[in-house]
Amino acid sequence: DFSVHGGFTISSFSTHWSDVDGRRSFSIGAYVGQPLSRYLSVYGGISYIEKGGTLTSEWMRAEGLGYRSPTAPYAFVYPESQIAIDYIEIPILLEMTLFDLDFIRATLVGGSYLGIRLRDRTTTVSQLAYILETTRGDIEPVDFGAIGGAGVDIQTETGVFHLGVRVSSSMIQVAPGLGRNVTWSMLAGYSL
Q1: Residue 27 CB: number of other CB atoms within 10 A?
Q2: 147 vs 32: CA distance, rounded Å
C-alpha cells in the first residue's frame, strides 16, 4: 500500500512561557504500509515538515534579551524571535482499524519519528517592526519523538482518500531554553 499525504501544520514549543505563537505551515510525504492483520497495519515513510514558533516579548524580557530603545534611552525594547525549523522526518506508525464498512474506515495511529534538520533560522524583529538580525540558531541536528492521531479512509472507484489529524511531540529539547516541538497536523492523502 503506497500513499501520498500532505497538509496544514501548526507547530510550537512546549515551554513554560505562555506567549509562544505557533508557526503555521505545511507537510508533505509518502508512506508505504503493510497489513499485519485485518485490523492492524504498519507504515513507514518520509516527509518534509516545517516547524517552529514565535517567542514574544514576555519570554525575551524574562531571558534579559532586551536592548535600549534608540528614541528613549531609559526604555528597553523587547523583540520577538521567529524561529523556523525545517525537517525531513522518517515516521514508523502502527495503524489500528476501529471499524471498516464497505466504503469508509476509521483508524487510530501511533508511533515514533526521527527528524533530520534541513535548516533553521531565527529572525529577531523589534516592536518597531524592523528586523534586527537573522541568524542560524543552536537547534539540535536530530529530533525524535512520538506521533498519535486518528483518521478516516474513504474508498472510491479509483483509490482511497485519507483524511486525518495527528499530533507529534519531540522527546528532546530542540534548543536550550526552547523545550520540545509540538506539532498538530491536518492531513489529506490518496492511495491507489
Answers
A1: 23
A2: 17
d(C-alpha 170, C-alpha 112), whole Å: 9
Q: How many CA atoms lie within 13 A of 139 on its CB side?
A: 26
Q: Give how far Cα 77 sits from Cα of 58, 60, 178, Å.
A: 11, 10, 21
The C-alpha cell that represents 40 in the structure block = 492492524
Place of cell 483508524: 107
pLDDT tens string 95-107: 999 999 989 999 9
| Residue range 128-171, pLDDT digits in tens | 555 555 556 678 899 999 999 999 999 999 999 999 999 999 99
Q: How far is 47 from 108, CA to CA, in rounded Å? A: 19
* Bridge partners for 26 per DSSP: 8
Model pTM? 0.82
